[in-house]
Amino acid sequence: MKAVVNGEGGVTVAEVDEPDGPGARLEIRSSSICGTDLNFIAMGATGFVYGHEFAGVVDGVPYAIEPTLHCGTCDQCIAGHTQRCTNGAANLGIFVNGGLCERLIVPEYTLVPLPASLPVEDACLVETGSVAMHGVRRAAIVPGERVVVVGGGSIGLLAVASVRHLGHPVDLEARHPAQAAAGERLGAGRPSGAYDVIIEATGSASGVIRCTELASPGARVILLGVFHDTVPLPGIVTLVKELTFTAAMAYGTSDGVRETELVAQMLGATPEIARTVITHRFALADAPEAFRVAGDRAAGAIKVVLQP
Ligand SMILES: [Zn+2]
Ligand SMILES: [Zn+2]
Hints:
Elements: E1 2-7, E2 10-15, E3 24-32, H1 35-43, E4 53-58, E5 61-65, E6 68-69, H2 75-78, E7 90-91, E8 103-106, E9 111-113, H3 125-139, E10 147-150, H4 154-165, E11 171-173, H5 177-185, E12 195-200, H6 205-214, E13 215-223, H7 235-240, E14 244-247, E15 253-254, E16 257-258, H8 259-269, H9 271-277, E17 278-283, H10 287-294, E18 303-307
Parallel strand pairs: 10-11, 10-12, 12-13, 13-14, 17-18
Antiparallel strand pairs: 1-2, 3-4, 3-8, 3-18, 4-5, 5-9, 6-7, 15-16
């Protein structure tokens, strides 16, 4: 079968062995490129198939994949926080073979059933959407609070969609005009004034500083971006406003709701989200071009999807 591999010559599509072993045999139909994959290329990470945002069919039945590998028996897993598994949580597509290929054998527990209204070609968005929804749920927004998202990439836009889905108004501060336009299509307003909840979706130190500027006294800042380094906080502003910072990573089950299923329902109910966030589609064979486009934010790419 064919798989996207990163090697000395960069990203290529190669012939690799068919997967085998126990689990469900997934025929992949959509698989999107994440900033994490672009980071892997920059790091020179090789030896595994990338792709943690994917969906496909098992025996003709469509599923999205919740790619967190976890033990299911530790305290965190039992509480539903599988992303915090203390027995070595891992992820399909992150130093373990993932979904940028034609077929993959996955644990049965990773399968997320899809509503009939969500095409499998769009269902790779369930993973990214769940990252965003998890952060929004951790914000515990109360009706009447002012909410803003800082950062108009796919996570920021899906955070906008998630806040709207939960019934609250939201504004978006985006760097690129195409991102701001996408935010408007999803129901975001233009930022003005101060906010009770600020969702950081840039993963940059400057983004965190911007969040503190936009905060009302007593506001909550949700750290949804991925930070590899120590992040400096503006000390006096943070102190004077008594800000609360909450980290959010991946997704799990909370209040008895599996966040991936909640997002599959959201994407099925509002097709405009996938139409807005997925800006490019390529055949698997065109992966090198797809990665080039995904790396060029200024050119208007938001989510780039490969369709094996
Ligand atoms: Zn991702
Ligand atoms: Zn566990």
